[in-house]
Structure formats: C-alpha cells, structure tokens
Amino acid sequence: MTGLIPGIHVNTVGAFVFTSYALLLSTVSPEFLCVFLLSTSISHALLEFIPSMFLGVPEEGTVLSVLPGHEFVLQGRGREAIRLVALGGFGAILVTVILLPIFMGILPVIYPLIKPYIWILLILVVLFMLIRLNPDFKSFILSMVLFLFSGIMGWTMLNSHTPSSVSLLCMFTGLFGVSTLIYSLSQRSVIPTQNRFHHFRINRSILRGIFAGGFAGSILGFLPGLGPAQGSLIAQELSGGVDSGNNKESFLVAISGLNTADALFSLVAIYLIGNPRSGIAVYIYKILQNFEFNHLLFFIFVSLTAVSLSLFLCLKLGDIVSESIEKINYKKLSWGVVIFMSSLVFIFSILQHANIPFILISYITAISLGLLPHYLGVNKSNLMGVLIVPAIVIYLSLS
Q1: Predicted pLDDT of residue 61
Q2: Stated pTM of the model
C-alpha cells in the first residue's frame, strides 16, 4: 500500500508502529514488529516504481531529466519496465546476501578508519556526480547552484524546531514529487497505449545491472546522506551507462536493485558497525535493543521471503496499472495526487504541531526548486544536496 500511494513513505509506517510499539508488545513479540517493518521496507522499495513510472511522465525531449522508467512508458513498454524493476529488486537482495561475508570481514575494520574522512568522501562523490552528469561548464554551474541551494534548504529545515519527519516529508514531496507532476501537467503529457506483449530477455547486460544494484545499495547502506540518486550514479557506472538500449535496461534494473539492497544493508550495518542507516533500521534497532548475529541471519531469511512475495505483487499490480492507466483521465489523476500529497504535508504538520506558515513557505520553496531542473535542462539528482550538505557539515564538525 505504501509503495503504490504517492507521498506515503515507508518511514511514516515505521513512525506509527514505533510510537505505539509499547502497546503492541502486549499482543505480539518484538521480532514480529521488526519482521513487519523490514518486510514493509523491502516491499515498498520495489513497488514504489509502479506509480513513479506511470505518474509524472514528461515529454519525450525531457525524459532524461526525470526517471529512466518514463522512457519505457513513453515507448509503450510499461510491462517490460515492470519486469526489469521486479527482477532488479529480487536479484539485488541475492547479490547482497552473497557479498555479505566479504563486507562482514572488511567493513568493521575500515569504517572506524574512514569515519573522520567521510565528509571528504561525500564531497568527492558529489564532484564526480556533477562532472559526470553535466557535459558543459554552464550546466555544471547551474547544477552546483541547485545543489548548494537545496543543501541550504535542508540544513535550515533540519535545524529548525520543525520535527525532522515533517521537514523531510515537506522537502521531498516538494522537490521530487509535486514539482514533477506539476511540470508534467504543464506539458500536457499523455500516456501512450502500453503494449500488451513484451520482449523481456535475461542477458549479460541484465545480470550486470543486478550486480551493480546490489553493490551500489550495499555502499549506500553505510554512507550517510547519499540517496538513490547518488547510488544511481554508482550503479550507472557499474552497469555501463545509459547510452544504448541494452544499457538502459541494465540501468533500470540497477536502480531498482539498489533500493532493495539498501533496505537490507541498512539493517546489516547495525550488526557490522552498530549504526542503523535508515529510518526503518533505527526503529528495528530501538525495538530489539540487543541486535545479535542470530537476528542478522533471521532478517536475511525474512528479506528473501519478503522480496519473493513482492516480486509476484510487482508483476501482477504493474500489469494491472499498465492496462488501466490509459483509460484514466491523466490530468485529473495527476491533480488528485498533487492535492493528496500536499494535504499529507499539512495534515502531518498539524499533527506534529509544526509552524504552519513556515511549512507553507518551505513547501512552496521546495516545489520551486524542484521545477528548476526541468526548465534548466539539468538532472534532478542535484537536489539531493538537501541531505548531502547537512551530512557533510555534521561529519566535518566531528572530524
């Protein structure tokens, strides 16, 4: 449900469960709640691709500035895209489990050594991202400005009196959700008829994408501030880029894979370095209180089971959406999602007793920043400065 409804983040579910877990423990065990949270996290990471690919679809000329799955939808290959993300998410979990013994031997040793220099590592990743994604000096400067502006916004909001959950919901909804839909509406986008048949074949390029997603997701699991946008860049390099048709398929597989791999490895990081790397991992860590090796083995089994069920759900629900989306009034649907996502921001702000005028100004600012990459012709991943800049400042002060 969280994956299929735009604007609902899996951490929202985690927050509700954690807030009431003292009451829930009277009827269920702590392990039950942790299994529920981990399964929700993995399922969400896989199924969220369905609305993200079929909503906010741009024009053909601007497709590279949004999501790679949109290009498949524009070509009527929605069913094929669904199979690519389903396979990527499933395969990346397997890759993560296979690589786990290597990480268990290396990560506890190197993490204390690199922790004081993580801010340098983050800066290097950002510079690489800016250079790699911008072919000329003008786009490089524009991307740098957007990165810094979003970073200033992130630092300001996360250091305000507003609860962090409300701040993150406000910023991400505006920067990446509502802004994309508004731009799509301004372009009068139309979803073409989706091909009922697909030419899906597992080849070497697809397998390379699975490995790239699993490896990139594992890296995200212990590097702070880096999100799927930066992981996508790592996955892109490992999967061979997005220039040819096969590489685009590999890239889409890798993006899906890094999401599910990150969900598992964020939990693995609790055992390896004692540092939960995601909201769900934090909740599980606090509920269990004593995370042991037996828990790690148990959660690996849970992850494999959850991703197997999610694979089936993703294929079935994805096919249903691809068949029905062209029958729905796209404009009305998009406006409905915009209103729904905006309502969520203000409902949670009221429930958390946030400063409504401050949230309103921040939300409008986030939407405005989110629209700029579309009109400037640069990549929206530059807006991930909203998390990376605060992380750099925090780790710089700790070093």
Answers
A1: 35
A2: 0.75
> Confidence class of residue 251 from pLDDT cuts 50, 70 and 90?
confident
**Average pLDDT for residues 394-399, to the nearest whole number?**
73
- 335 within a domain of the structure (yes/no): yes
Q: Which residue has the higher pLDDT, 104 or 239?
A: 104
Higher pLDDT, 310 or 245: 310
Determine, yes or no, domain membership for 1. Answer: no
20 by Cβ neighbours in 10 Å (0-12 / 13-18 / 19+) ranks as exposed
Instruction: Say if 324 falls within a structural domain.
Output: yes
Neighbouring C-beta atoms of residue 208, cutoff 10 Å? 18
57 vs 119: CA distance, rounded Å: 35
SS3 per-residue string spanning the chain: CCCCCCCCCHHHHHHHHHHCHHHHCCCCCHHHHHHHHHHHHHHHHHHCHHHHHHCCCCCHHHHHHCCHHHHHHHCCCHHHHHHHHHHHHHHHHHHHHHHHHHHHHHHHHHHHHHHHHHHHHHHHHHHHHHHHHCCCHHHHHHHHHHHHHHHHHHHHHHCCCCCHHHHHHHHHHHHHHHHHHHHHHHCCCCCCCCCCCCCCCCCHHHHHHHHHHHHHHHHHCCCCCCCHHHHHHHHHHHHCCCCCHHHHHHHHHHHHHHHHHHHHHHHHHHHHHCCCCCHHHHHHHHHHCCCCHHHHHHHHHHHHHHHHHHHHHHHHHHHHHHHHHHHCCHHHHHHHHHHHHHHHHHHHHHHCCCCHHHHHHHHHHHHHHHHHHHHHCCCHHHHHHHHHHHHHHHHHHHC
Phi, psi of 203 (to 5 degrees): -130, -170
Q: Say which range, 26-35, 144-153, 294-303, 324-333, has the weakest mean pLDDT.
A: 324-333
CA angle 152, 153, 154 (to 5 degrees): 90
Residue 180 confidence (pLDDT): 78
Which residues make Cβ contacts (< 8 Å) with residue 175, sequence separation at least 6?
150, 366, 367, 369, 370, 380, 383, 386
Q: Quick one: pLDDT at residue 59?
A: 38
| Tally of structural domains, the chain | 1
2 belongs to a structural domain: no
pLDDT of residue 58: 46
Structure tokens at 161: 């009196």
Name the residue range of residue 80's domain: 10-398
